[in-house]
Amino acid sequence: xxxxxHVPRMALLGKxxxxxxxxxxxxxxxxxxxxxxxxxxxxxxxxxxxxxFRNPVSRADVPRYKQLxxxxxxxxxxxxxAAYSCxxxxxxxxxxxxxxxxxxxxxxDPCNGPLPSxxxxxxxxxxxxxRGPKAETRWSEPILLLRAVSPSTIEPVPARRGSDVVVIxxxxxxxxAVLVTTMLGALGAxxxxxxxxxxxxxxxxTRRSYRTHHIPPALPPGCGCNPPGLCRSG
Length: 234
Description:
Oligomer: single chain
Distance between the termini: 153 Å
Low-confidence stretches: 200-234
Largest sheet: 4 strands, antiparallel
Strand order of the largest sheet: 3-2-5-6
Mean pLDDT: 77
Order of helices and strands: EEHEEHEEHH
C-alpha cells in the first residue's frame, strides 16, 4: 500500500521522548483489504535493519519485544482491522513504547514496551489474516528519539554564573570605594591649600590662639603696686 507512517505533524506534547514516539493512526488505508477477523500490527525495526525484516507467516511467528536487542525488530499494537476504518471513532494518535509493564513483567504476549535506545527506528503497518499477511504499508522515514542526559554530566552553569556575578560586583564596589576616597582626598587637599593662601592656615591659627583677649597687657616697668594711687614715681 502507498501509505507511509509518520509522526503527527500537529503540535503534540511528548510527540517524541527518550523511549517513545507518537504515530498518526492510518484511516481508510485497509478498507477493501481487511475482513472482520483480520488484525493490523505495527512492525518496529532499527532503521539499518528494516531492509532485512521478513513478515511472519502466522501470529505464532510474530517477533517479540524482548527480542529487539538481538533480532533488531519486533511487532506490537495488535489491533482489530475495524479500528482503522474510515468510520472508526478511536483517537487519531498511537503511542509506540508506552507500556512500561512489558519490561518489568517479561510477558510473552506482544508488548509495546519502552524503546531501549534513541534509534533511529522505522515502522510499518501490516495487515494479517488467519493465513498470514494480506497487505502492508511502506516503511516510515527514520525516527530518532531524544537522547537522555545523565544528571552527573550536567554542569551547574547557573550556579557558576551567579558566583561570577557576585565576584564582579564585589570588585566593582571596591573600585568605586577607592575612587570616591581618592576624589575626597584630592578635594580636601585643594580646600586646605586655599585656606593656607587666605591666611587661615595652621600658622595664623596658632598665632591668634595665643592672643587671648581676657589677659591684660603687661604693666609698664616700675609700677608694681596696686591700686595705682599708692605707686611712687622713680
